[in-house]
Write a structure and sequence with these properties.
- It contains 7 helices and 9 strands, in the order ββαββαββααααβββα.
- The protein is α/β, with parallel strands linked by helices.
- The strands form 4 sheets. A 3-stranded antiparallel sheet has the order 7-8-9, with no helix packed on it. A two-stranded parallel sheet has the order 1-5.
- The protein starts with a strand and ends with a helix.
Length: 196
């Protein structure tokens, strides 16, 4: 029997977990590094975490412990600087260590916000796994709505490519649900063109 133990970094999701709590803190202007901000923060975009779980299910070459974390961990001070930039809010007020404990509880703060972890997804990268959001800036832009996307032009056969290009020129593969949305959007735009 094949067993895969997924060990995750801090999941970046705009809908739950640590990110909405930090967004609320930053919206008041009180965001900043936790303590001195010089501890490592291993994170993973929620889409990349989903991809890792899916790969663990279908890829027979995976077994044992697998780190599902971004290949680019950041220092806490760099994470909050990127978050402040994405939210257009200052990130200069250091948050004392009791600040995360108020939001997450003492254990939650120790395991999420204040845990120093520098984890590498060695197994996944050795298998050639590609991450959709390998930088914290791209992950935060996606999760917090700052990512501007446009579908690339249709291929010569008239089907949309299943790749997005962001405003910064970064290309990434689409998930199944995004492909479905792109196909529906492509068909409706073809109908609109046919009507005019």
């Amino acid at each position: 029997t094949r067993v895969v133990n997924i060990r995750t970094g801090i999941a970046m999701s705009g809908g739950s977990g640590l990110l909405p709590l930090l967004r609320a803190l930053f919206s008041t202007g009180l965001g900043g590094p936790f303590g001195d901000g010089k501890f490592w923060f291993s994170w993973v975009a929620i889409d990349d975490l989903t991809d890792a779980y899916f790969r663990a299910i279908v890829d027979d070459s995976l077994s044992g412990p697998v780190n599902a974390a971004s290949p680019n961990p950041v220092l806490n001070k760099d994470f909050v600087a990127a978050l402040g930039k994405e939210l257009h809010r200052p990130a200069i007020v250091p948050v004392p260590s009791f600040g995360p404990a108020l939001l997450l509880g003492r254990e939650g703060a120790q395991e999420l916000a204040l845990a120093e972890q520098r984890v590498a997804p060695t197994v996944l990268t050795e298998l050639g796994h590609s991450f959709r959001y390998s930088t914290i800036d791209a992950a935060l832009a996606h999760e917090l709505g700052g990512e501007s996307l446009c579908l690339l032009r249709a291929t010569p056969r008239g089907r949309p490519r299943h790749v997005w290009r962001s405003a910064t020129g970064v290309r990434r593969n689409l998930s199944v649900s995004q492909r479905l949305w792109a196909a529906i959007h492509h068909r409706s735009s073809l109908r609109q063109r046919a009507r005019t």
